[in-house]
Write a structure and sequence with these properties.
Radius of gyration: 24 Å
Strand content: 35-45%
Helix content: 25-40%
Number of strands: 20
Strand order of the largest sheet: 6-7-8-3-9-10
Number of domains: 2
Order of helices and strands: EEEHEEEHHHEHEHEEHHEEEEEEEEHEE
CATH class of the largest domain: Alpha Beta
Shape: elongated
CATH architecture of the largest domain: 3-Layer(aba) Sandwich
CATH superfamily of the largest domain: P-loop containing nucleotide triphosphate hydrolases
Mean pLDDT: 92
Distance between the termini: 28 Å
Length: 353
């Protein structure tokens, strides 16, 4: 990873019911970094500490190697987009975008040029003369983003920027955020509680739960190799089993009740084994066959559009995500006997803690 622009070292802070405990993070130059976790996890508290809205009780925050704990927000060189966008209702779109530049006494020509450049980048040129009172949610988000970018910040801080939007608009603006980031290369820290949203934008993710950083990594690493039961369930691994692991001649075997499930590798002892539902194969009932075979009745089917979630109740309950067409062609119905199995290489085993 390149030289970190943001460093969070042992930061702790309690604000009423919200808290951050001993947080450690590094955000590299040009990186799109997401703080991800459920509501109340402490994500926004940590972002506001970075922004300078709160001073940590313990630890320190560095921006480009400089400690900024005592530095006021306006002198940190950071752009901040709050969850409610905080647009000025008495100013039109162009005036909102240019507000921060005017405070910094930029020339009128520079302000105008920057407003026009950002409006073109974010596709809001046609809105520049409009009052912010008459904008849609997606339009407000673009205007607030342009205002945050206008001061050319070292780091852009986004607090749940898409949470108030409908699903279709959120998907479109995820693509916009990624496009703008690719073009401008602005280091970005984005708070979210939505894993699908995060996958669309993030270079790396920090999972936060109950004020503590649980895991940091690429979306693929966290998606495929969760480090705790909470992370596994949060990223919808669905199949999460606790058992006792021992090494065998060609892999590791996890005893769960009366059965053994096989994985390619992992630690011994008290562990969790996880396998993603899209890696589970559904077939006609078999008494013998591939490894990790579970046979039992289909107890639940949930239509997820392009996929069907199928729950099989056997020696362990196994969840499979099956392409819709394959599910329809299978002829299976709730109550039918079926087999589900997964390759050992798709299973992930980690120590219980």
């Amino acid at each position: 990873m390149s030289q970190p622009v943001i460093q969070v070292r042992g930061v702790s802070l309690t604000l009423g019911d919200f808290a951050v405990h001993d947080a450690h993070l590094q955000v590299a130059e040009g990186e799109y970094f997401v703080l991800l976790g459920p509501t109340g996890a402490g994500k926004t508290v940590l972002l506001e500490c970075i922004a300078g809205l709160h001073r940590p009780e313990n630890g320190e925050i560095l921006v480009e190697g400089r400690r900024v704990n005592e530095t006021p927000p306006e002198r940190r060189g950071l752009g901040y987009l709050p969850q409610d966008y905080a647009l000025f209702p008495h100013l039109n779109v162009a005036q909102n975008i240019g507000f921060g530049m005017r405070l910094r006494r930029r020339s009128a020509a520079e302000v105008t040029r920057r407003i026009n450049d950002l409006a073109e980048l974010l596709r809001i040129t046609h809105l520049l003369a409009r009052s912010t009172l008459y904008l849609s949610g997606g339009e407000k988000q673009r205007v607030a983003l342009a205002r945050a970018l206008a001061i050319e910040p070292k780091v852009l801080l986004l607090d749940e920027p898409l949470s108030a939007l409908d699903e279709q608009t959120r998907e479109a603006l995820c693509a916009e955020l990624r496009r703008v980031h690719t073009q401008l290369k602005t280091t970005t820290v984005h708070v979210s509680h939505n894993f699908e949203e995060t996958l669309a934008v993030a270079d790396r993710i920090a999972i936060i739960h109950q004020g503590r950083v649980q895991q940091v990594g690429t979306p693929e690493a966290i998606f495929r190799q969760p480090a705790s039961e909470f992370v596994a369930r949060f990223v919808r691994a669905e199949n999460v089993f606790r058992g006792t692991a021992r090494h065998g001649a060609d892999g590791i075997f996890v005893s769960i009740g009366l059965i053994n499930l096989k994985a390619a590798n992992g630690p011994e002892g008290d562990v969790f084994l996880t396998v993603r539902p899209e890696d589970v194969e559904l077939t006609e009932p078999m008494s013998d066959g591939p490894p990790n075979l579970i046979t039992g009745p289909i107890v639940r089917v949930v239509d997820r559009g392009a996929l069907a979630r199928v729950d099989i109740s056997g020696a362990v309950n196994l969840v499979a995500l099956v392409p819709r067409r394959k599910w329809q062609d299978s002829g299976f119905r709730i109550g039918d006997m079926a087999s589900a199995w997964f390759e050992p290489s798709t299973a992930h085993v980690f120590a219980a803690r």
